[in-house]
Write a structure and sequence with these properties.
It is a single chain. Helix content is about 45%, strand content about 5%. The chain is built from nine helices and two strands. It has helices at about 5-15, 20-25, 35-40, 45-50, 60-65, 80-95, 105-115, 120-125, 165-170; strands at about 130-135, 145-150. A two-stranded antiparallel ribbon has the order 1-2. About 15% of the residues are buried.
Length: about 170
């Protein structure tokens, strides 16, 4: 027993639509013949799949999605990218505390929040950090890319945007 076979069986148990049905849901080009299937799959996958399944309409979602060519330097193909995006969107919409939900912050406050970066956070909270790259997750290629924490290159947040809210709160 392996995780892929368990996931295939689980998708059957739960009535998950086939790979081709999910492609339709995602607005991707329909598969109408072997040529269409071959164009979107990694080399040799279409032939192997059609030996296992009677038709491209029978291919399980996981099997088809994992066999697709990757897109845009991504680690997944277009169907899996669609599914991942859909999950993130639904999770965000369902989170009533998500900072961009209506009524949580004013437009001015949101503007300030969007300027705040991990680099600024590190500058404010890490001990003895005086320089950092503008994008904290990217390794700088030279010391020329480092910015002073006290400089203006790394955006600062202006707390005055919250002052209007504090004045309206009851004491």
């Amino acid at each position: 027993m392996d995780i892929v076979s368990l996931d295939i069986q689980r998708s059957r148990d739960h009535g998950i639509p086939s790979y081709t049905q999910f492609r339709k849901y995602c607005g991707l080009k329909a598969i109408e013949n072997v040529q269409d299937l071959s164009e979107i799959m990694v080399e040799g996958a279409a032939d192997r799949l059609l030996k296992q399944y009677q038709s491209w309409n029978d291919i399980e979602l996981l099997v088809g999605a994992l066999s697709e060519k990757h897109v845009d330097d991504a680690m997944v193909g277009p169907t899996m990218r669609c599914i991942i995006k859909e999950q993130f969107v639904r999770t965000r919409i369902a989170d009533r505390y998500f900072y961009e939900a209506p009524g949580v912050f004013t437009d001015n406050q949101l503007e300030e929040i969007r300027k705040f970066t991990l680099s600024r956070f590190i500058c404010l909270n890490a001990n003895n950090v005086t320089t950092i790259q503008k994008q904290a997750f990217l390794k700088p290629t030279s010391t020329d890319e480092l910015q002073l924490c006290e400089g203006d290159e790394i955006p600062k947040i202006f707390m005055s945007r919250w002052a209007e809210l504090a004045q309206t709160l009851p004491e």
